[in-house]
């Protein structure tokens, strides 16, 4: 998956790739953030403490976004940020040598560091549990495929649209042209440009860094209540990886998890300033963090920071009134100036995006199957998928919500009584945005506001536990028990998410990468697949894929130019369209077709065939599939004359031109061993077609085939988490032998998965069971969604023959893929 900045052979389990992406680049980002935070603290003479790294990280988000919005290239923007970080590192070295402004050593540093490390480990667990480099949220959320494509384009060029109709990669840059917010791209862009490591490998680890930094921010906010460091570290960690935030992280939603970090980072930095003697620059770090909110979400981010900013201004006004001096308001001036300087170019850039997408904002459903309930924001919800009801231990989830809600109310009231500003400000930032946004947006955006509110509710719940513990007596026991139950609930909720994670497939993506290596610079390449990630993986080949939500433009053969609802087939395209491409990549399918006769196979993998155009286009090309397009079908005739008028017209044209007819003769139809409804122990789900079934812990199917003895490819339709195992037993023999297995490919249920080559006897019984994966492995409880099991004989391929029009009757009854002249 290399690009122009960096290219290397692809191995998703390569130790060097894993070390770079999971450890070295995140460590570099943290180090650069620390340097930027140190620089920000020194310039404003603020003691940031545990907020140093989050402040620097958010400064990087705001600065990079502002530079990109002003038109600077990706490389120049990264260079500016690196120069600022270098300045911060030099200042840190000077300060250490002078022994000035040194942070406290010991528990003051160890506990927040422990919170960061543990939160990062929890956030990385779904990825580490796979054992290979991947991205989370595959098929659950298709946006990450577009996001990393945009980061790659910015790394190569700038944040402007680049030839939107040239190929699918550049079509995605329409989002840049529309003014899409760039905040979540800042650090993946930095890692890509500075180290050359592919964004694909960096996206999830850098999202995990965001959750770890949220743990630091939560630690700092809880410390304003004089919470013990150990308690603040533990509760801060759980707030950083609470259920809904963790769920969005595991679906690849970096923008959604960055928003609470920026919003509550701004709150924590403001509270940090208000808790110390103010200088004119004390509020500048908070303003920089507020700029990161706008960078992440556009000017709509003001819904999170404006209410809290007004409260901070009111507090300063109240203090100034009591001091009978307007000097107390002076810190607002530089903070406002810096905030406007950062946010204005970003806000101006995103105005067009919100204007052009107003219909989407108010009506979009996205990947949701229904409204996400607000109760999930209380961080205890025992479900594998945040979009679905808690069907496992369902009675415990509401109890956890009520417990967290009660602790939240107590904690918020207790903080107000103590005149603590940090926790109430965090609650205000999160809940005010819910009140402002949800009446004006669709359920898709409602859910995003709940994600951002979740850490504030977790902090208030932690404050409630602390209030009970400090009350002493019986209430202390209540607090300890409540805290233990809430912590257990959050950990269990995350464990459910971990076990049901959606992860990009390993083997199929490596095959696509092999194709990318062979086709780089030879495109354009038509990709005959639903795979939304194919344009990114094959970006060096000018990829063109019609069946994603960012389509250049389509030329389908069907009436109305509509794509089919089943897997794509080469015959689904208009002839003039497919002939535009020197290369066509077709996903293997037991029922699929081959491209026109002037294409020949150039490269094959287990799941794909790459076809290269080697001659002139046919004059006419007529599909003959089961639905008129897909695969092959017997040619029906009446009295030796084809029944279809279109076939008769083609034969008449061939006779008039005195040219032969080319016929693609297909092999025998696939043998259906287990039909779609032939399964036992699988649970039907109304979200999917009636012929598909859902299994999490079990399920099996059995069938019988009578075939010519030989070697056969085994295929199963479905989306596979832990996967399935296929067994076979010839009639008359004892015991089943394992044929092979398939799994870890969570695509669309209608797509076909290759299993293995089976040696079938004349009469054979086949049996399929759901594979069981160890509980400690990621996606161990992800559902299998399965359909039919079929076999095709090894060596049976479609043959192209030529026949004179006068002898066309010899084709009657034959399985024909297509006819040409």
Description of the structure:
The chain has 821 residues and is of the alpha+beta class. It contains 24 helices and 22 strands. The strands form five sheets. Strands 2-1-3-5-4 form a five-stranded mixed β-sheet. Strands 6, 7, 10, 21 and 22 form a five-stranded antiparallel β-sheet that branches. Strands 11, 13, 15, 18 and 20 form a five-stranded antiparallel β-sheet that branches. A hairpin with a 2-residue loop joins strand 8 (637-638) and strand 9 (641-642). Helix 1 (15-44) packs across helix 3 (74-98) and helix 9 (199-223) crosses helix 10. It is elongated, with a radius of gyration of 30 Å. The chain starts with 14 loop residues before the first helix and ends with a strand.
Low-confidence stretches: 1-9
Strand content: 5-15%
Give the structural class. alpha+beta
N-to-C terminal Cα separation, in Å? 40 Å
> Order of strands in the sheet with the most strands?
2-1-3-5-4
Q: Helix count, per DSSP?
A: 24
What's the structural blueprint in terms of helices and strands?
Blueprint lengths: L14 H30 L7 H18 L4 H25 L8 H22 L14 H14 L11 H4 L2 H4 L8 H10 L3 H25 L5 H12 L2 H8 L3 H21 L9 H14 L4 H22 L8 H25 L1 H6 L32 H22 L4 H16 L5 H29 L1 H27 L7 H13 L5 E4 L5 H4 L5 E3 L29 H4 L4 E5 L11 E6 L3 E6 L7 E3 L9 E2 L2 E2 L2 E2 L2 H13 L3 E5 L5 E4 L4 E2 L12 E3 L4 E7 L3 E10 L4 E7 L6 E6 L9 E9 L2 E8 L13 E10 L5 E5 L11 E6 L1
Parallel strand pairs: 1-2, 1-3
Antiparallel strand pairs: 3-5, 4-5, 6-22, 7-22, 8-9, 10-21, 10-22, 11-20, 12-14, 13-20, 14-19, 15-18, 15-20, 16-17, 16-19
